[in-house]
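Incident log, structure service

09:12 report received: a user says their structure output differs between two submissions of the same chain.
09:20 pulled the input from the user's history:
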Amino acid sequence: MAELSRPRANRPSIYGLRFLRALWRLLRVYWTSGDALPGTALLLGSIALELLTVLANVYLSDAQKGIFDALELKAADAFFAAIGLFLGWTVIFVFASTYRIFLRQTLEMRWRRGLTAHYIERWIGATAFVQAKLHADEIDNPDQRIQEDVRDFVASALGLSLSLLAAVATLVSFGGLLWRESSDWPIRLSGREFEIPGFMMWVAVLYAVFSMWLTHVVGRRLVPLNFDRLRLEADFRYGLVRFRDNVEAVVLSRGESVERQSSLTRFRHVIANWWQLIRAQRNLSVLTTGVGHANDVVPVLVAAPAYFAHLITLGSIAQIRIAYAQVSGALIWFVNAYQEIARWRANIERLAAFAEVMDETEREAAQPRIQVVTGTASVLRLEDLRLESPDGTALIEGARASVAPGDRIAVTGASGSGKTILLRAIAGIWPFGSGRVELPVRDRLLFVPERAYVPQGSLRAALSFPAPEGTFSDEQIVEMLGLLGLRNLERRLDDAQPWDQVLSDHEKQRVALIRVLLHEPEWLFLDKATSALDEATERRVYELLAERLPNTTVITAAHRPAVVGYHARRWTIAPRESGPARLEAA
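09:34 re-ran on a clean worker, output below:
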């Protein structure tokens, strides 16, 4: 097990075939799902409207040429005909441009919904506990990766791919026009004339190639900087959330200054990264802005000699300027999209690393270590159970015990001896060790940890957890509130508040015990589940368990001696002078 827990740093950047495999893995989650068919229809619609936008632009440039030629010739009829053509294609352009965005956003929502559901399904499961133990140093902020990285990945995947398609279509459409309009221009050098077919097209290509090379040289630092930005921002936000969730404990401990300093330190890391990022973006923006403005004047400068030589009309210059701008914009698509590509790469790397760690966790959890199986009898058995810490240190070895239906067993031992880990192993979420746990043939097993989990939502939902809200009637819930001394909450069942913050520790433990009485499990495992209660309330809890659940098997990790008296049997985790502790069952 030592190898499994070896700390590792954040995974290195991915390139080449590994990057393509990571991208394909993200793409196939949605595009091989049941929603792929309507998604394909939306994508095809987006592509069609993207191409229609390009086509409308072509005809708009023709109309503008007609307008300027008519003005130059003072031909009113031709002028108004060209204006009519321009307005007609403007309507088509506005329709196509508006609805291509609508269809793209609709597809973006469906794609994000599918990819988010995929990651949530994989992350929120029993292996999340093992992942946190083994890979916490590798994967920061899974919540941010699921929420922010998935959102940005989908938006950029659609935005970049459709804009690239439009760029290619624009290049083909306007490239032919630009080639045709600049095919017969003589170039004078040292008193000699040369004719270069499609001269303006070659100018646009050379300008774009130079711009892309310069952009890559200046902007390549943006990928790692964006990766770090996502991580540092999430760390800063998580620290603030942790303080909010534990504000009482921090303030009572007079730890505000420490928490404040920790938050400011994390924010300083955000600021340092931000300075690096905005400097890199500043350099790239200077380049892209300069490239764009310099490029605006290039077609006029190059076409002016042909106009002065009466080889082309003013309308031709207007059309050439539009065509050159479209071709140049298509060719420098990479320049304009570089910052978004950098962020997109960071999204892909973070999501790919997250998926890889979940894969590794699933493989590690599936390895034959502690075998948790459902037996054929109604008995719980531990056979040669050895429990280890994640770093491989043995805690308990050779544990053998059996539990019959209706038994009441207290697990005792010094703090840190392994009582909680023993219950985790029985629950199947602690794989570190070896041996076998044979669970009884029972459907209703319930584990109650010391720190009760209170989900978001209404109080009724919190009391019904892990069953859905509405499983139990209000009469049942109100009765249990009265039995556990929480009758003051019976009028607040519909209130949706952050109950984890509203309720005190002892109230949260009572909420967890109310769930026990509502669910009526056949096997109940309590991990110091009454540690925050006073002795009278604790005694009342065990009296209720005996009265309300007389046939339920109860195994309790005891936190104080009085708890042992409420159980008929005892398991003791006995330390030894050398070697791991042993489980003594009586």
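09:41 both user submissions now match this output. Likely a transient worker issue. Closing.
09:42 reviewer note: The two ends are 31 Å apart (CA to CA). The longest helix spans residues 256-308.
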